Amino acid sequence: MTFEPAEWPRKLRSQEWYGGTSRDNIYHRGWLKNQGYPHDLFDGRPVIGILNTWGELTPCNGHLRELAEKVKAGVWEAGGFPLEVPVFSASENTFRPTAMMYRNLAAMAVEETMRAQPIDGAVLLVGCDKTTPSLIMGAASTDIPSIVVTGGPMLNGWFRGERVGSGTALWQMSEDIKAGKMSQEDFLEAEQAMSRSSGTCNTMGTASTMASMAEALGMALSGNAAIPAVDARRRVMAQISGRRIVQMVKDDLKPSDIMTKAAFENAIRTNGAIGGSTNAVVHLLAMAGRCGVDLTLDDWDRLGRDVPTIVNLMPSGKYLMEEFFYAGGLPVVLKRLGEAGVLNRNALTVSGGPIWDEVKDAVNWNEDVILPVEKALTSSGGIAVLRGNLAPEGAVLKPSAASPHLMKHRGRAVVFEDIDDYKAKIADETLEIDETCVMVLKNCGPKGYPGMSEVGNMGLPPKVLRKGIKDMVRISDARMSGTAYGTVVLHTAPEAAVGGPLAVVRTGDMIELDVEARRLHLDIPDAELAQRLADWTPHTAPPPSGYAKLFHDHVEGADTGADFDFLKGCRGREVPRDSH
Ligand code: FES
Known about the structure:
Elements: H1 15-18, H2 23-32, E1 47-52, H3 64-77, E2 81-86, H4 103-116, E3 121-126, H5 131-142, E4 146-150, E5 157-159, E6 162-164, H6 168-178, H7 184-194, H8 206-217, H9 232-251, H10 255-258, H11 261-274, H12 279-291, H13 297-304, H14 321-327, H15 330-339, H16 355-359, E7 384-388, E8 391-397, E9 408-416, H17 419-425, E10 438-441, H18 462-465, E11 473-476, E12 488-493, E13 510-514, E14 519-522, H19 526-535, H20 546-554
Parallel strand pairs: 1-2, 1-3, 3-4, 9-10, 10-11, 11-12
Antiparallel strand pairs: 5-6, 7-8, 8-12, 9-13, 13-14
The structure holds FE2/S2 (inorganic) cluster.
InterPro entries: Dihydro-acid_dehy_C, ILV_EDD_C, ILV_EDD_N, IlvD/EDD_N, Sugar_Degrad_Dehydratases
Protein name: L-arabonate dehydratase
Keywords: Iron, Iron-sulfur, Lyase, Metal-binding
């Protein structure tokens, strides 16, 4: 039997394992044949790794085994050889202290999984918040052809005639409980209505945002982001993506060809138009770092500042992802950006062509879901990047989720040293706080929490909620769930745990927030601030061992994406030969 590669333009990397008659080739092929694969599958056709973040403890991705079968069908049809590979799945709703602490670990594992094994192309099967960025980061660091297929959002939740948006409803109802407006029994009943089908969060939370970012970046086929998990068209998308990756391998269409600066600019503008999650800021910065693309926090402000938020979805608006899909989904939004002259139309996508070709014929089927510009939720969507003596390296705020009357505010700081301090004090009726105060939470950044938890939208004090107040200015170095809302300043950098100015704010200090001027200011004399910083000592000791130590020692600030310093950049697909 001969091992001439099939009709492919070049010898693929999988042939280093499978394509010959050496002892090593026989070793690799022979083992795989114990799964019942015929000999001719090793003839040089591309091996497609279906990198699957399925897991029963990642319920948002609980249907991805089924979807993987459709991907395989597409790969087979196009002449590839699909092999499903489980990869690290950082579930948002189970991982402690926060799934964010494991994004980089997952990205590192995926990178090594791809490079160390005979994979010519990869289908990234993702869904829950961290699974999408971690797999894209890993793929970018290998530059092996890759295509994203997300699991799709859940169907709408409904409770007593009202839409129940994942996360968003949870935050609202828990505030209603504290304010005495909802009973615990009703809360439990609502729980049954929150997640009524397979899929990811149905709001424009982080999962839907990152699915939209993958599509806007060009890493997923057009229309992928919004198709509900249980819609038959989700399975069709999986199958045609399986076909497509085979051709991408043939063309050697790599992540570095797709994720260019132009693609990231498209994604940032898209985030403004959809009212996407602030989490996209850290994830896109980290992804760009893997691609060697010079993307900064200021690009977020510059590019997103004048983009109107036109997608009327919770938490900024009214509807859910199911309705976004029926209205036409992300292609309609990208078309709008193109018509407004702010889309890089020639940016390449996994389709092999420019993004404009994919979206120029999109039709908006519901103008109450995807709004005309004159009815935009906010004319300046996107992410506001704030600076000042309280955030020299920047902080972010999502204007579309904030209260207009608080966008310019001066108030007395009420400080919580960490999340435990907040929990201990917030319900204390003697706490000196009212709605004019600024709540300050420290030590919840990348190193501080550790992992940069989504606690930045800390709940208001019950005595304020009982007055019917729904929002206050809140400042922290934490993140916020993409399903949350409020006038919440996040990602303050440098974080408190490394001695950033946030660490030395004291209860009673006055703080000024001016979103229009992009200013966050601690109103104390410069000399006093300098003295406080000089006197600062760390809040906690660093972890002594284990992954927590690796994380602490190497995680960078939120302002550059909170990646590990040693993981930035692309290390390519080459790997030393094995030793057998
Ligand atoms: Fe997994 Fe929202 S918690 S998608």
